[in-house]
Write a structure and sequence with these properties.
about 400 residues, alpha/beta, two-stranded antiparallel sheet, 13 helices, 10 strands, about 55% helix
Length: about 400
């Protein structure tokens, strides 16, 4: 009984040790192998030449290997292990690549990762994102079908293809350089279009915006069209009058031309005289400005001097001005109007009367004039305006 219990304990210990060893082995495998790769499955419509152990590449660089190739009815599932340190785009495609006709094929994941979400563990790539190369027998079948269709039992049954080739050969004979130049210029054209694709797309976008604006302004465009139609209709209805007006205008222009040709000298003389008048106006623009400023006041005063009751002009005289010699008044008037254009003799006389004109020598008042006349003497006038002074009221006169 004791031996049996010891045996069971031994078996239990051995079993527990095996379980622990297995767990440790799994942990070691996960740390050194499983944790360093992710599992990805891809479905292909066919997987000829793809085997377990074939490599998985990104841009020709191996990043993993194929674990299993499993037929799934009309599709084939390919299980792959990819290094976790390599980022694969979440929407990546899987393509079977055949480096040569006889070598093993491998799976290429594309495109290369440049940003965004990445493919997670146990991701599945559907058949819509996978592709396989054309098989050699399929290519041969296609070539055989083309040759049969173009052979004597097909398109060339009546020699049509041969005639076409003969005609093409005759037309292209001697035009090799022209074909070369054409292909070269077409390549340059495509290069130019590629270099200006941004401008072309911008032009297309602007045209789209323009057409959208026209569509949004359809009502306004229709109204403009109706108005233009009305205008053209009116002009069509008045074409007779317009023709007559244009004819009269042509005749008038002819008469004007003839008039200018016949009176060229007179017109030139008038223009020269007009230039002189305009020069005078320019020189006297300050005086004209003063006249324009004072003319309304003068006209207003002239209107105010009219007495409607008596039918006469009302006025008021300054008696003191009567005591001034006429020459003094003339000098004052000339000095105010045009001091720079006074004739020489008058200017000399006014220069002698300058003290009187400027108010430095006072003139006798009307009372003094009347008193002197009553006493039988002359008033104390600043006379004569030239020559020697023979006497004044203070020294007596003779």
């Amino acid at each position: 009984m004791i031996a049996t219990r010891a045996t069971r304990d031994l078996f239990r210990t051995v079993a527990l040790t095996c379980v622990l060893v297995l767990i440790a082995a799994i942990a070691v495998w996960w740390v050194f192998f499983g944790a360093s790769s992710r599992r990805i499955s891809a479905y292909f419509d066919q997987a000829i030449g793809v085997y377990a152990g074939s490599k998985v590449d990104v841009l020709g660089v191996p990043v993993g290997s194929i674990d299993a190739v499993v037929p799934m009815g009309t599709q084939v599932r390919v299980d792959m292990s990819v290094d976790r340190s390599v980022s694969i785009p979440a929407n990546a495609d899987a393509v079977v690549v055949a480096p040569s006709v006889v070598s093993d094929r491998y799976v290429q994941l594309a495109p290369v990762y440049v940003g965004g979400p990445t493919m997670s563990d146990n991701a599945v790539i559907p058949v819509s994102r996978t592709a396989t190369p054309v098989e050699l027998d399929q290519l041969f079948q296609s070539l055989n079908k083309v040759a049969t269709d173009l052979g004597p039992n097909g398109a060339n049954a009546n020699g049509s293809l041969s005639d076409l080739l003969d005609t093409a050969a005759a037309n292209l004979a001697g035009n090799g350089q022209n074909l070369h130049d054409t292909v070269t210029e077409l390549s340059q054209l495509t290069g130019t279009l590629d270099a200006n694709k941004a401008n072309l797309f911008s032009t297309v976008d602007n045209l789209a915006n323009f057409t959208t604006t026209l569509a949004d302004s359809d009502a306004s465009v229709r109204q403009l069209s109706r108005q233009l139609d009305d205008v053209t209709g009116f002009l069509a209805g008045q074409r007779g009058n317009l023709a007559g007006a244009v004819s009269e205008l042509g005749s008038a222009l002819g008469r004007v031309q003839a008039f200018i040709a016949d009176n060229r000298a007179t017109i030139r003389s008038n223009v020269d005289n007009l230039a002189g008048v305009t020069k005078v106006l320019v020189d006297e623009r300050s005086a004209l400005a003063e006249v324009l400023d004072d003319a309304p006041l003068v006209l207003s005063n002239g209107i105010n001097t009219y007495n409607a009751a008596s039918g006469a002009l009302d006025g008021r005289a300054d008696i003191n001005e009567l005591a001034q010699p006429p020459m003094v008044g003339v000098c004052k008037l000339l000095e105010q109007v045009s001091p720079n254009t006074i004739p020489g003799p008058i200017a000399s006389a006014c220069a002698q009367l300058a003290p009187v004109v400027q108010g430095l020598v006072p003139l006798p008042s009307p009372a003094q004039v009347i008193q002197s006349l009553n006493q039988g003497t002359l008033p104390p006038l600043p006379l004569p305006i030239a020559g020697v002074v023979y006497g004044t009221p203070s020294t007596g006169g003779r």
